[in-house]
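User: I'm preparing a small set of examples for a lab meeting where we compare how different chains pack in three dimensions. I only have the primary sequence for this one, and I'd like the structure in token form so I can line it up with the others. Please keep the answer compact; I'll paste it straight into my notes.
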Amino acid sequence: MVEFRSLTRRSLLLMLCAASGGLGAATRALAKSSKAAAAYRGAPNGRQSCANCAYFNPPSGCGVVSGPVSARGWCNLWG
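Assistant: Understood. Below is the structure token output for the 79-residue chain.
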């Protein structure tokens, strides 16, 4: 059990994420970037492409960029 005296913002956030179903739920609550703000383009950057990005949701969704994206695309939020 966590004592309130040792409760930090980080531990509170982790507890809230765990209660809401994990970090995925917390990241979905954040606003997505526009394609322009993320410098999205329809071509890969070397080996980096939307298809092998952690945020890509097949067939054309993204967890951090709004609107449809191509699996062969890329942006500066790639991760």
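A couple of notes for your slides: The chain has two domains: 1-30, 32-79. Strands lie at 56-57, 61-62.

User: Perfect, thanks.
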